[in-house]
From TrEMBL:
<dbReference type="InterPro" id="IPR036969">
    <property type="entry name" value="Citrate_synthase_sf"/>
</dbReference>
<dbReference type="InterPro" id="IPR016143">
    <property type="entry name" value="Citrate_synth-like_sm_a-sub"/>
</dbReference>
<dbReference type="GO" id="GO:0006099">
    <property type="term" value="P:tricarboxylic acid cycle"/>
</dbReference>
<comment type="similarity">
    <text>Belongs to the citrate synthase family.</text>
</comment>
<dbReference type="InterPro" id="IPR016142">
    <property type="entry name" value="Citrate_synth-like_lrg_a-sub"/>
</dbReference>
<dbReference type="InterPro" id="IPR002020">
    <property type="entry name" value="Citrate_synthase"/>
</dbReference>
<dbReference type="Pfam" id="PF00285">
    <property type="entry name" value="Citrate_synt"/>
</dbReference>
<dbReference type="GO" id="GO:0005759">
    <property type="term" value="C:mitochondrial matrix"/>
</dbReference>
<keyword id="KW-0808">Transferase</keyword>
<protein>
    <submittedName>
        <fullName>Uncharacterized protein</fullName>
    </submittedName>
</protein>
<dbReference type="InterPro" id="IPR019810">
    <property type="entry name" value="Citrate_synthase_AS"/>
</dbReference>
<dbReference type="GO" id="GO:0005975">
    <property type="term" value="P:carbohydrate metabolic process"/>
</dbReference>
<dbReference type="GO" id="GO:0046912">
    <property type="term" value="F:acyltransferase activity, acyl groups converted into alkyl on transfer"/>
</dbReference>
Length: 421
């Protein structure tokens, strides 16, 4: 076991103490009201979960372990994994140890290649990705240890082992799915001298020493976590709370990420931008784009990439992508349209009056940058999101098992009972 395990072993007793103290001293404190409206609106906004890895505020957006996401754009995904798990950004020695540990775990079982090779050639990349993760369940150390009677206080040990084993293998699995599904050629082996993101770019078949790698590092860091109540994280935490191992739980969560109201949103946003380009035969003027947006709204259609269930400000992850584009991308009509949309859409939505949040979310920019650097296969974008979000989901599972969090089991009521209130 690497330094990460030892760091957690020192921190977890204090976390357990604070968890018990909170329950003992403030267990009866009311967090908020649950109305019938909230029960019938997907429990949106109900304060009913605990998550220490990240939180989102309406006016500032995402924070990872207390740090605003825009203050973390310089760090690697491996560093954000360490931050999610421990609360600390690793020093050089800790980072090197974690990277070495992940490298030692990145060999994918040969049967996974056989499974992927024998799936229907037109399978969705997300189906292939989740099938690969679930198919590795027989490798689970958590499952074997719990089956053998492992003490509950040590559940986090094997949850961490499973999580690191999964995270280490995801780039190779995803890269092969990309090459297999989109006819890019034979599987490319890992390069032990590259970091997690650069190796992924290399195995996909892109130049690892390029701006594409810089973008991928940013992309895989920015999408890492978003509290515990989003569809993918909540699904995974619910399954894991039943002591299903991380392979089962992560696969369940990522199946939720495949939905068009969650992880598929970025490809829908890019399709919208491309439709604007095709309609105007290039990048339109702001005046023409404004009329285009009004025409779309007046026809009863939404503007993809604008609005968010929680945020009431521009998504800071969108800001990070836009800053990257402004620094690295020139003479690109797709990115130019994205930039013009940001200037045109919010004022129109405010005047229109029906959008609670007129500001862009992360999906409004991410796809355009991937497209610019040659990753034009839309169906693969959600796999990228999944690789990144796996960092947060597995970290949450490790912490939940460390604290002994119980089975998630909300109460449901039939409609006639609701009508009786």
């Amino acid at each position: 076991m690497g330094k990460l395990h030892n760091i957690l072993a020192k921190k977890i007793p204090d976390w357990r103490y604070n968890y018990k103290k909170l329950l003992d001293q403030k267990g009866n404190v009311v967090l908020g009201d649950v109305t019938i409206e909230k029960a019938l609106s997907g429990m949106r906004g109900i304060k009913g979960l605990a998550c220490d890895t990240s939180y989102v505020t309406a006016d500032e957006g995402l924070h990872i372990r207390g740090s605003h996401i825009l203050d973390l754009v310089h760090i690697l995904p491996e560093e954000v994994l360490h931050l999610l798990l421990t609360g600390d950004i690793p020093n050089k020695a800790m980072l090197a140890d974690l990277q070495s540990d992940l490298k030692s775990r990145n060999k994918v079982p040969p049967y996974i290649w056989d499974i992927l090779d024998n799936m229907p050639k037109d399978s969705h990349p997300m189906t292939m990705f989740n099938t690969a993760i679930l198919s590795m369940q027989k490798e689970s150390q958590f499952y074997k240890a719990v089956d053998a009677g492992l003490s509950k206080t040590k559940y986090w040990h094997t949850t961490l082992e499973d999580s690191l084993n999964i995270i280490a293998k995801l780039p190779a699995i995803a890269a092969y799915i990309y090459r297999l599904r989109f006819n890019k050629g034979k599987r490319i082996n890992s390069n032990k001298d590259l970091d997690w993101s650069a190796d992924f770019v290399h195995m996909m078949g892109f130049d690892s020493d390029s701006e594409m790698t810089k973008l991928m590092r940013l992309y895989l860091m920015l999408h890492c976590d978003h509290e515990a109540g989003n569809v993918s994280a909540f699904s995974a935490m619910t399954v894991n709370s039943a002591l299903s191992d991380p392979y089962y739980a992560l696969s369940a969560g990522l199946n939720g990420l495949a939905g068009p109201l969650h992880g598929l949103a970025n490809q829908n946003c890019l399709r919208f931008v491309l439709s604007i380009r095709d309609h105007f035969k290039g990048s339109p003027s702001k005046a023409d784009l404004k009329q285009f947006i009004w025409d779309r709204l007046n026809s009863g259609r939404v503007i993809p990439g604008y609005g968010h269930a929680v945020l009431r400000c521009p998504d800071p992850r969108f800001t990070a992508f836009m800053n990257f584009g402004k620094e690295h991308v020139t003479d690109d009509e797709i990115f130019d349209i994205v930039n013009k949309l940001f200037k045109v859409v919010p004022p129109v939505l405010k005047e229109h009056g029906k959008a609670k949040n007129p500001w862009p979310n992360v999906d409004a920019a991410s796809g355009a940058l991937l497209y610019h650097y040659g990753l034009k296969e839309f169906e693969f974008y959600t796999v990228l999101f999944s690789i990144s979000r796996s960092l947060g989901i597995t970290s949450q599972m490790v912490l939940n098992r460390a604290l002994g969090m119980p089975l998630i089991r909300p109460k449901s009521l039939p409609f006639d009972v609701l009508n009786s209130y």
